[in-house]
């Protein structure tokens, strides 16, 4: 994969925010466009102050760690705040200090244990551990709690322990953009359940519905998309300037309405004036290279065949795709390649390999998406071929019979990273994540 090294203002603003890769280019375009909302300035200020806020929380965390340990004037270890900053950044525990009341604790423990355990250990106060962000969360939790009047040396569970439990519970909630929302379908099913499958033969509408799904839940975006398609059923209707305001009003509740409509109109005009054609490529920056298929060196035009010189495949041509003039977004390009490109090139009559030459590798096998739904879909497609596919590395292993049976019986759930985990029970709606399952079990 190659990309331009030219810096962009939009990328700089978004660098401190948690932005999924399939929406990064889209939001950067919004920020840099002349139609960007007035809130862009506020977003820019938040971006500038984000690093300062992280540093502030780190210092407060270090101070909290310092207060949690008694000062030892005879110790040779550094006891200033910066020393605890170093411990927090490196994820290490500070060296334990000398605990008071050691004799009292020894007598109490010996009385309770009756010489069962002759080794008496002084009480230990658990310190915040983990990354600076997690430690900062611990510190914030401690601030909210009232100070206890009970000696900390007799407290069974310290506040930092409770904060650690809070972090553990928070970890069960997967990060946004990680866990698919579509249930993992049995391998015997004809479709997986993505909206792209329904518009594989209509690439214009496939790109349009992808525009609706960017930074928006499918439960909100898809019903709105169908309403728009019903009212404006052709690219001509979408491209009409007279329909701009009605389109904006129909999708305003999804957010970024004007920019979405601008993309829809770009697609509509592109399919009307310059639709994608096999053999005509347009450069796409920061995206995958095309594989050179020897058969694709011949571009058929009517009854004649034009031989494309193999040496003419330079860097620019390798970075070019048939829809590069319509979109530069990875999510849209990945969706189109998986569901539409084989049909455009005449390799097959459908996204599922209908009437495909067995000697030709389908396009979806070459795609490495970042989107969680597309990753789940390709896992499923590879399983139908008998392979277990790793979306992070692209590596494959032979699908084991246990996992195959679990998928077909509905006994798989998504874990907190979007992977699959076999469960003993079958789920009718198996999009339940492992974290959600554990939370339900605890309630």
TrEMBL record:
Q: Which GO terms describe its biological process?
A: DNA repair
**Keyword list, A-Z:** Nucleus
Q: Which GO terms describe its molecular function?
A: catalytic activity; DNA binding
Superkingdom of origin: Eukaryota
**Can you name a GO cellular component term?**
nucleus
Q: Does the keyword Transmembrane apply?
A: no
Q: Where in the cell is it found?
A: Nucleus
InterPro entries for the chain: DNA_glycosylase (IPR011257), MeCP2/MBD4 (IPR045138)
The protein depicted here goes by the name Methyl-CpG-binding domain protein 4
Q: What is the lineage of its organism?
A: Eukaryota, Fungi, Dikarya, Ascomycota, Pezizomycotina
